[in-house]
């Protein structure tokens, strides 16, 4: 091993000493950039959904399955609905939630630190009445027993706005606050006259009530006027026969008014998770449906909550380039590595100009320092008088032998061996001069 070191082209020890501080500094900078500049996305996220048997609950399950494919655990939090979900987002109990348009304004959303990831689907206002209720106008609901659901949902506030534009005060109705499933059972039992849902048609209770004898759907024949009075609403049509063509259910076109369901998140949600949720939304909601065309949803439109910049970029440009061809975690890793590359370039380029000269100086210094000893021998010989020369000559020759012995044990890379052999030659030159009768002549190498 000693022989190998003696004939190596590079001195590993000198290289480590010269480059060590640089390596440590670069490593520290890379670790800091990797961990602090753009932290890795969390592997767990909390999604607030909705009531039992609601569309929010059904879609929440689909989101959990979609993100599980990318190793993200989505914890579903059942809730009363939009207003409850907003409260959960505000308190930090949830990271992301389904919220109905019209539940909050842009200014209020900004105060709460909320952003939209896009509108997902329309949520028509479904007013189901017993067939014995013949009214075709909402003013005919006065005195009737109507269930609007718990206050934590978005329906009570929404329907109060709808009643207000009809000149109907809420206290003119007998309003109950049952949840969806108990309210449906109460309607079928005749304990209430009607109930209001605001949900996608995929909700199981909607599907059931559309086909239940003795229950009819209210037709919002003035739907277009509602959209002018309440801008967050849209006019949608439930086509004749869409539920069951064979049985002609429904037997006519129904005009409905509909807010949109929006995916709302806290503004500190990791950008990579925003991409994943918008990707999942595209997969889940982009198909054609009862009230939407192929590709109409998800969309950055139809929301009063500002759209997150990452979501807007996704809608505009599509998924990040690497995520189109790689698994999420691998793509995210490479997307974060650019920060590390910048950190490396910022440090390595200037430091690379320091390390080579420092390495060369350390290697050559093992040779150069002996020239000081050699020069000391010459100077000692130059100041010797005639009577002392013989004794001093012997001492200086012994000193040269000691110097030569130590020089012979110097380990130096082959690339710098010329300096070592030059030193040995100069030692012999000084030795020859000491063997002459006079002191060393001027001009001897230093």
UniProtKB/TrEMBL annotation:
It comes from the Bacteria. InterPro entries: TRAP_TAXI. The chain crosses the membrane at residues 12-37, 337-361. Pfam families: NMT1_3. Keywords: Membrane, Transmembrane, Transmembrane helix. PANTHER family: SLL1037 PROTEIN (PTHR42941:SF1). This is TAXI family TRAP transporter solute-binding subunit. It comes from Massilia jejuensis.
């Amino acid at each position: 091993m000693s022989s190998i070191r003696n004939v190596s082209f590079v001195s590993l020890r000198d290289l480590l000493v010269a480059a060590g501080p640089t390596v440590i500094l670069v490593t520290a900078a890379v670790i800091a950039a990797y961990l602090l500049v753009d932290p890795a996305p969390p592997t767990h996220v909390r999604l607030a959904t909705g009531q039992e048997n609601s569309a929010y609950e059904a879609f929440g399950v689909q989101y959990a399955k979609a993100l599980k494919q990318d190793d993200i655990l989505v914890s579903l939090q059942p809730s009363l609905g939009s207003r409850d979900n907003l409260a959960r987002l505000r308190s930090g109990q949830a990271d992301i939630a389904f919220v109905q348009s019209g539940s909050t304004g842009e200014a209020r959303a900004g105060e709460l630190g909320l952003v939209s990831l896009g509108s997902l689907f329309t949520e028509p206002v479904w007013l189901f009445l017993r067939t014995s209720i013949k009214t075709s106008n909402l003013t005919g609901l006065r005195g009737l027993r109507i269930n609007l659901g718990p206050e934590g949902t978005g329906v009570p506030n929404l329907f109060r706005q709808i009643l207000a534009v009809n000149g109907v005060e809420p206290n003119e109705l007998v309003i109950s606050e049952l949840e969806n499933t108990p309210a449906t059972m109460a309607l079928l039992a005749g304990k209430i006259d009607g109930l209001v849902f605001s949900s996608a048609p995929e909700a199981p209770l909607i599907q059931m009530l559309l086909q239940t004898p003795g229950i009819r759907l209210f037709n919002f024949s003035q739907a277009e006027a509602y959209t002018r009075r309440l801008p967050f609403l849209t006019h949608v049509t439930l086509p004749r026969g869409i539920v069951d063509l064979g049985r002609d259910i429904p037997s006519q076109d129904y005009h409905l008014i509909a807010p949109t369901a929006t995916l709302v998140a806290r503004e500190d949600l990791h950008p990579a998770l925003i991409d994943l949720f918008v990707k999942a939304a595209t997969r889940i909601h982009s198909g054609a449906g009862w009230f939407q065309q192929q590709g109409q949803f998800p969309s950055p439109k139809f929301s009063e909550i500002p759209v997150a910049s990452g979501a807007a970029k996704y809608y505009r440009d599509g998924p990040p380039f690497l995520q189109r061809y790689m698994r999420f975690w691998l793509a995210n890793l490479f997307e974060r590595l650019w920060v590390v590359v910048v950190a490396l370039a910022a440090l390595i380029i200037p430091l690379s100009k320091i390390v080579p000269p420092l390495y060369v100086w350390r290697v050559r210094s093992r040779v150069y320092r002996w020239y000081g000893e050699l020069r000391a021998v010459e100077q000692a010989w130059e100041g010797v008088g005639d009577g002392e020369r013989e004794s001093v000559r012997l001492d200086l020759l012994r000193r040269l032998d000691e110097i030569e012995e130590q020089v012979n044990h110097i380990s130096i890379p082959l690339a710098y061996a010329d300096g070592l052999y030059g030193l040995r030659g100069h030692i012999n030159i000084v030795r020859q001069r000491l063997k002459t009768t006079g002191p060393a002549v001027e001009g001897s190498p230093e």
